[in-house]
Amino acid sequence: MNFDRYSRQLLFSGIGRDGQMALAKSSVTMIGCGALGAMQAEMLARAGVGRLRLVDRDFVEESNLHRQVMFEEQDALERLPKAVAAARRIQRINSAIEVEHHVRDVNYTNIEQLINGSDLILDGTDNFETRYLINDAALKAGMPWIYGAAVGAHGLQMTIRPRETPCLRCIFPEIPAPGTTPTCDTAGVILPIIATIASWQVVEALKILMGQFEQLHQSLLQFDLWENRLTRLRLNREKMANDSACPACELEQYDFLNQQSGQMVTSLCGRDAIQISPSNNSVNIALDLSELAVQLRNVGEVSYNAYLLKFRAGEIELTIFPDARCLIRGTDDPLVARSLYARYLGA
Asked: pTM score, two decimals?
């Protein structure tokens, strides 16, 4: 190892030579290489984490460039997959580390394979279903993972260690229904909140990779940078377990690893369209189409009645029903359809 490269990091008492060696032997899987994931990957590469596995289903667009710091205009012009563009940049930043890229849609069929052999999972996703899937897979594997989310100027961060801390389902027992929470494409986002959440995720990752568990903040952190607010909710696994038995970390019921619990994606033959139905975990959904119309009017054309909402952005048209079922016209690619569903419905 070239210790000169990390000389300023070695001077920091929290890391030192032993810590740097531990980082070099570590392996991290990042699921999602967008705003959070791109920043996580660059910081970990510069810190000298030995092996990075990058997983993302999407490609670079011009609208990504204001907040996804890993990418450049040429990446958007070439419509490079984000995992590929990120891996190329990491190799230019630190050629001494190993980088894998996987242009994959993370789902119940592949997540356990994708995280296999890692020491840690970092959340860079943009939807709840994938986060609950990560939670199940990490708990089953006994692997720590670090949750993060950012929309507008607001963000959340939490570190999850199986059997040691509350898990995602302890804190958020029910997956939010599609269309009920804002997304970056409906509410916007500013780069400072991305940098804030990614920084907290990465510093927690460094502590875990070096075995300094006592330094973890053991909280759910909530930020609102525009309103100058930071809220810290201390997490106590024993108390939460006494209050109610979590189906995931207490009962070991990994519902999101079950085929029946995922989104149902159907190609509509000959119609250049995909139908997506929400997860079976999202039961009794009754979307308020008028509220959803308000969110979507800022980014496209919207019309609706009591039975359905039509939304058009460019060549893509979404027809959304009150039960969160959605017909996506303008693509026959399930990966693109799932990405659009997450982008506009937040699930």
From this structure: 0.82
